[in-house]
Specification:
Blueprint (H helix, E strand, L loop, with lengths): L7 H6 L5 E6 L5 E7 L2 H7 L9 H8 L2 E6 L3 H15 L15 E4 L7 E4 L8 E3 L5 H14 L11 H5 L7 H4 L13 H16 L3 H16 L3 H14 L15 E9 L3 E10 L2 E11 L6 H18 L7 E3 L12 E3 L4 H26 L3 H15 L8 E10 L2 E11 L2 E2 L5 E4 L8 H18 L7 E5 L2 H13 L7 E6 L4 E4 L2 E5 L6 H33 L8 H11 L2 H6 L2 H8 L1 H11 L1
Parallel strand pairs: 7-10, 10-11, 12-16, 16-17
Antiparallel strand pairs: 1-2, 1-3, 4-5, 4-6, 7-8, 8-9, 12-13, 13-14, 13-15, 17-18, 18-19
Helix pairs in contact: 9-10, 14-15, 19-20
Length: 601
């Protein structure tokens, strides 16, 4: 199935995580909401095969935009899907049942609290855990907890006065081992409350302490040779992680909360917003803020909060009284209580917001990679123009590098980038002609003058940017040549020093330090490294020829080409001494062969 261009960046950026996806039509209306254990596999499945002429194919043809929310578990995805479907009622969705049908585990707010399942959340101080999308799973959790901690199941009013007055008697649950008899004072309140505390840890997923406790009990039982008891404890340990099924998406204690998180790169800030109403996530939104003066995350977050709360108020959402943030803001937010959570359910909601922010930024980066080459090139050149204080985009860049060893065989290399890409057919080598000894500054001055004098004479195109591999000294030398040619000010020129990757401008004593992730710096580094590589290869070749000159070309009548042919054929000068003159003559002629044999004898 053909995929629309606008959807390709999103499909490429989908994570291998549980979540909820939303499909939008041309008018921006949600037409379908779905959940997935793996967002990448599920969403891509709509586009990687034909669905005939049925409703699915019709749905896919209408998709113009895809958004998704990343969550922690598949259960969380199901619950969030339920909330969003009830809110937006998409055309292609089967309406899900109300979340009141999902059961919770309740720890009742009373003396010697009871543990039971319920479908009604009553805000009387009781603790609720869930909801559980599977009743069977919830009952398994309850059975597991009751095996670990025998609790009362009666609804007696176990006040201290009633217990001391001996108003109650033990029931069958006590006699079969399902209760420790707190109604007659056979179990202390402290011991009972300790069990409740451990149960809360299990239901919240904080089971490390419980596991350690069970391990100690198992080891003690094994030490006493109570192997049946030890085996039972081992089985409970193996089951422990399986019973961590509390949802992080919906929690009745979080009645009305707004959650914000922020991240930024060198150009943009991103603020994510989650809205929690009646304990459920009903909205997820991310906005971008263009940075002008390298604004810090503190400032970006406040701008994002103001924009989102104002926008949501205008669309009918009432801003929440409580706001969850990653750090304390530097200004007060009217009519709001700020919370910076360190742990617990609110911290998990903040992490959920940050995860969605990361995936949004990844999707944006991938979208750029799918953009047309012309668009990417224009964006790169515009950014370079801005970073390097140029009046025009650097369509053509030329870079120069010198190579020599203690002044021997001095050469220079020039590399060329056009539209941000290497133009290798335009690379050039230069042999230094007028400079004696190791003088990089003078060598650079000579090469720059020769290069641009020739371009002027031949009336060829000049570059918009010249890059000099070196610091202030090399840059000043290059600038002298441009001034002699009356090109100073007509072409932008910079120097880049290797040690700290400092960018130097003519007449500015303070260097520019670009961000290491900056595309401008990466292009400058790339063309500089190309010039260095290209110059080193030429210098190596020249050294090789120099080595030939010192041995064979010193013989009258023997040139570099002849010497090179001899060494390629016979391998070394030493071997030439042992080769018969006739064999050498067959390659280069009798007269030259005789001269070589005479010189080497």
């Amino acid at each position: 199935m053909n995929v629309k261009e606008v959807l390709k960046p999103v499909l490429a950026s989908l994570p291998d995580s549980p979540g909820v996806y939303q499909y939008f039509d041309r008018e921006g209306k949600i037409i379908y909401i779905g959940k997935a254990k793996n967002l990448k596999k599920r969403v891509r499945s709509y586009f990687n095969k034909e669905h005939g002429e049925g409703k699915i194919n019709l749905l896919v043809r209408r998709i113009e935009q895809i958004k998704y929310v990343v969550v922690k578990t598949e259960w969380d995805a199901l619950l969030l899907e339920n909330n969003l479907i009830k809110k937006y009622q998409p055309r292609y969705n089967v309406m899900l049942k109300d979340d009141k049908t999902y059961p919770w585990i309740c720890i009742k707010n009373e003396p010697f609290p009871r543990l039971f399942s319920t479908r009604r959340v009553i805000r009387d101080g009781s603790a609720y855990f869930g909801p559980y999308t599977s009743v069977r799973l919830m009952n398994t959790v309850l059975d597991f907890i009751k095996q670990l901690y025998p609790l009362r199941t009666c609804n007696l009013n176990l006040t201290e006065t009633n217990i001391e007055g001996k108003k109650f008697k033990r029931c069958l649950e006590y006699h079969i081992g399902n209760c420790k008899g707190p109604c007659e004072g056979l179990q202390t309140k402290q011991d009972y409350d300790n069990s409740i505390a451990q149960i809360k840890h299990i239901l919240q997923g904080n089971i490390h302490g419980v596991i350690q406790y069970l391990k100690r009990q198992m080891e003690e039982a094994a030490g006493k040779w109570e192997f049946d008891k030890a085996q039972l404890l081992k089985e409970k340990l193996l089951l422990m992680e399986k019973f961590q099924s509390r949802s992080a998406i919906v929690h009745p204690s979080l009645t009305d909360v707004d959650v914000f998180s922020v991240k930024s790169d060198e150009k943009c800030g991103f603020v994510n917003f989650l809205k929690i109403v009646n304990g459920a996530v009903i909205q997820c939104q991310t906005i971008e803020l263009n940075k002008k003066l390298d604004e810090p995350d503190q400032e970006l977050l406040m701008l994002g909060i103001a924009e989102l709360r104002q926008h949501n108020a205008a669309t009918g959402f009432v801003p929440s009284k409580e706001i969850i943030l990653p750090f304390k803001p530097d200004a007060d937010i009217p009519d709001a209580v700020i919370t910076v959570p360190q742990k617990g359910d609110k911290k998990r909601l903040l992490e959920l917001s940050e995860n969605n922010l990361r995936y949004y930024m990844r999707e944006k980066d991938l979208a750029l990679s799918f953009a047309s080459p012309e668009q990417k090139t224009n964006e790169l050149l515009t950014q370079m123009q801005k970073d390097l204080r140029m009046t025009t985009p650097p369509v053509r860049i030329e870079c120069f590098d010198n190579s020599n060893i203690q002044g021997a065989y001095p050469v220079a290399a020039m590399t060329v980038f056009i539209n941000g890409k290497p133009a290798k057919s335009e690379y050039r080598h230069f042999n230094i002609k007028t400079v004696e000894g190791p003088n990089d500054f003078a060598s650079m001055e000579e090469v720059i003058y020769r290069r641009y004098k020739r371009l002027i004479d031949e009336k060829k195109e000049l570059p918009q940017l010249i890059v000099i591999d070196g610091g202030k000294g090399q840059l000043r030398s290059a600038l002298k040549s441009l001034e002699r040619l009356n090109l100073s000010g007509s072409i932008s020129i910079i120097g880049i020093a290797k040690r700290l990757e400092e960018i130097f401008f003519p007449g500015d004593p303070v260097p520019l330090y670009l961000d290491k992730r900056s595309p401008t710096l990466k292009i400058i580094q790339q063309i500089r490294d190309e010039a260095h590589r290209f110059g080193i290869s030429h210098h190596r070749n020249k050294r090789s020829k120099g080595a030939i000159q010192t041995s064979l070309t010193g013989i009258e009548g023997i040139g570099g080409k002849t010497a090179e042919d001899l060494l390629r054929k016979f391998g070394s000068v030493q071997r030439l001494k042992d080769i018969p003159e006739e064999e050498i003559a067959a390659l280069i002629g009798k007269a030259k062969a005789q001269k070589i044999k005479t010189a080497l004898s």
